[in-house]
Task: structure prediction
Amino acid sequence: MAKKADGGNVVVPILEGEDPWTADELEEIREDLVFDVQRMERALATSARGLERLFDEGTEGAGRDPADVGSSNFERDQEMSLAQNARDLLDQAQTALRLFDAGEYGWCESCGEPIGKDRLMAFPRATMCVTCKQREERR
Ligand SMILES: [Zn+2]
Result:
């Protein structure tokens, strides 16, 4: 059976000219991802409670000042976009973590090339290389 050169640890690809990953760096990346997942789960829970409160406020008290209703609708929209944002980030972090544990971390999900160490150190959640990410954002 083929054994990986580093003794079975996850092998994450690098770009030409980058230094190979050290075990410590990979450990840090994984910790970052786990931390992100936990942070986003907490943010979502908080935001769900906030939304509940806002919806409650929105339904009780007929005959309220329209200005109050308007500001609470605004608050609700804001809270919902925050929640959406947290959900997206949670999704990204969970995907990256899953890829990491599957030993498939660090490959661009779009073109299949290495994402690169510099980029992953800065954005551990990245699942696309810079080129593909920019192309996607231009769409
Ligand atoms: Zn790519």
Residues 108, 110-111, 113, 128-129, 131-132 surround zinc ion (CB under 6 Å). Confidence is low (pLDDT under 50) at residues 1-7. The radius of gyration is 21 Å. The domain at 23-138 is CATH 1.20.120.910 (Four Helix Bundle (Hemerythrin (Met), subunit A)).
